[in-house]
């Protein structure tokens, strides 16, 4: 009986600590969006901490990761296209 109570207390305490630490980091990230600081790095970190205990944080972390991945892929494609254009224009300039 005491073991069950202690286990329940541990789980509740862990959930509270994760919530406090995660929300603090998340809020710091949001503040850093309007003040100097790496807010776009700190926000996913806060969500990662919260996702240890909360399903809603896992959902939002997944959405942030997908958004970052798609934007990164899009930027890489644009950079590659610009590079190809520069290389092709250099090749035509050299052949003149």
Explain what this protein looks like in three dimensions:
- The protein is mainly alpha-helical and 96 residues long.
- The chain has one domain (2-94).
- The protein is built from 3 helices and no strands.
- The protein has helices at 2-34, 39-50, 55-94.
- Helix 1 (2-34) runs antiparallel to helix 2 (39-50).
- The radius of gyration is 23 Å and the shape is elongated.
Portion in beta strands: under 5%
Proportion in helices: over 70%
Tally of strands:
0
* Count of folded domains: 1
Report low-confidence residues grouped into runs of 5 or more: none
Short characterization:
The chain has 96 residues and is an all-alpha fold.
What's the arrangement of secondary structure elements?
Layout: H1 2-34, H2 39-50, H3 55-94
Helix pairs in contact: 1-2, 2-3
Task: Looking at this protein, list some descriptive labels.
mainly alpha; elongated
């Amino acid at each position: 009986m005491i073991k069950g109570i202690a286990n329940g207390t541990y789980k509740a305490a862990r959930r509270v600590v994760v919530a406090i630490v995660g929300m603090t980091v998340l809020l710091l990230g949001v503040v850093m969006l309007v003040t100097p600081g790496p807010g776009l790095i700190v926000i996913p970190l806060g969500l990662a901490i919260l996702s240890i205990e909360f399903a809603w944080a896992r959902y939002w972390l997944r959405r942030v990761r997908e958004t970052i991945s798609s934007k990164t892929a899009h930027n890489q494609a644009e950079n590659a296209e610009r590079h190809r254009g520069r290389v092709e224009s250099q090749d035509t300039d050299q052949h003149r």
